[in-house]
Amino acid sequence: MPLIALSDDELRAGCGLKWGRAPAGVIPADVAELDFAVAPRIRAVLSAAVERSGFGYPDYTGGAPVRLAEVFAGRTLRLAGWAPDPGRVEVCAQVAQALCCAVLAFTRPGDEVLVHSPTYPPFLEAIRSLGRRPLLLPVGEVAGEGWAEVESAARLRLIVLCQPHNPTGHVFDRVALERLAGLAVRRDAVVFADEIHAEIVYPDSEFLSIASVRNVAERTIVFTSAAKSFNIAGLRCAVGHFGSDDLHARFRMLPWHLRSGAGALGIAATITAWEACDDWLDQLREQLAKNRTRLTEFMAHFTQVRYTQPAATYLSWMDLGATPFGSDAHHLLAKAAKISLQPGSVFGASLEGFVRFNFGTSEARLDSLLERFGRALEACGGKG
Ligand SMILES: Cc1ncc(COP(=O)(O)O)c(C=O)c1O
């Protein structure tokens, strides 16, 4: 199954958010979508469903969602080394929806929810809009001030772990996971792990699920989906596993229509992605590894850019605060370089100088993005 890079015209004609909202002449590298055609086997399954008008309700009592739970369990055992129980699996429309449900099911208004900073924006939104309080821990921190604050929190009920982490591409190691696990046990908190980026981890790092860490599995909920690595976010299908019957039962007390919603096409596409598209995924990983190297080498020329090579994901996080762009990096780059990056400000307070750069694109387009970036930086006096 070949990896096909789409042209600008094809991307603009599609209905993705990334290219759909980019003004003419601007190359978008913001929204977490890939610039590649979806794997041919997934497209074939979707075309076949269209041909037979397969748009009815999915049968949640014995049909595709049950099969999806089994496929998820088998894949997780094979690739991540722990064994989900298919009987404790839930299928939702989105991982972010599942997080909202977890906040409702396992916390009360005024409770504290631990998230790492910078924070994937829907997490912050979910926690705040539901009247809970985010407790921010700098990503990668396993001791120090942030930890002291977390340890002394009076109403910590839920720990949200984005592993691998968006936007930094950080992968938490065993020490960090055990630290979080210990905290969860001491405070009797539930862990919600969003592992949506776990399929894109570079060979120099190792992904470990917190569900496989001793003592914490029974209080852990893991959610994932094929949306990011197979580029099918618009199909809306997410899968989650509950570490105990009690956790599962508490989640299931929420109304079904609040915690479900995956449609037949999303379910069919996810099953195909996880069962039949590993060769396509390998090609994607190879391309992304090349892109990551290219990006790292390029950023090394700019001493004012603070950039750490991501260990996972096709997202990279960089601090441009010390460049002449200063805290207005995102706007200035859009204006001067005609490239659109995700502004750091949406990931938390005081992050205006940061941007998130999506390098999930063709080599040629990545070259154009970097050339524009470099030219704009040099034009305003940045140090090469
Ligand atoms: C960490 C993380 N979780 C969730 C999502 C979105 O997934 P969903 O639409 O299933 O909520 C993204 C998308 O970029 C993400 O990066």
Structure described in brief:
The chain is of the alpha/beta class and 384 residues long. It has helices at 8-13, 17-20, 40-51, 64-80, 95-106, 121-129, 145-151, 174-187, 245-251, 256-259, 264-276, 278-300, 329-337, 363-379, and strands at residues 27-28, 89-92, 112-117, 133-138, 156-162, 190-194, 220-224, 238-242, 306-307, 315-319, 339-340, 342-343, 354-358.
Can you describe this structure?
- It is built from 14 helices and 13 strands.
- With 384 residues, it is α/β, with parallel strands linked by helices.
- It has two domains: 8-38 and 278-379, Alpha-Beta Complex (Aspartate Aminotransferase, domain 1), CATH 3.90.1150; 47-276, 3-Layer(aba) Sandwich (Aspartate Aminotransferase, domain 2), CATH 3.40.640.10.
- Strand 9 (306-307) and strand 10 form a beta hairpin.
- The two termini are 40 Å apart.
- Bound molecules: pyridoxal-5'-phosphate.
- Pyridoxal-5'-phosphate binds next to helix 5.
List the helices and strands and how they pair.
Layout: H1 8-13, H2 17-20, E1 27-28, H3 40-51, H4 64-80, E2 89-92, H5 95-106, E3 112-117, H6 121-129, E4 133-138, H7 145-151, E5 156-162, H8 174-187, E6 190-194, E7 220-224, E8 238-242, H9 245-251, H10 256-259, H11 264-276, H12 278-300, E9 306-307, E10 315-319, H13 329-337, E11 339-340, E12 342-343, E13 354-358, H14 363-379
Parallel strand pairs: 1-11, 3-4, 3-5, 5-6, 6-7
Antiparallel strand pairs: 2-8, 7-8, 9-10, 10-13, 12-13
Helix pairs in contact: 3-11, 4-11, 5-6
Bound molecules: pyridoxal-5'-phosphate.
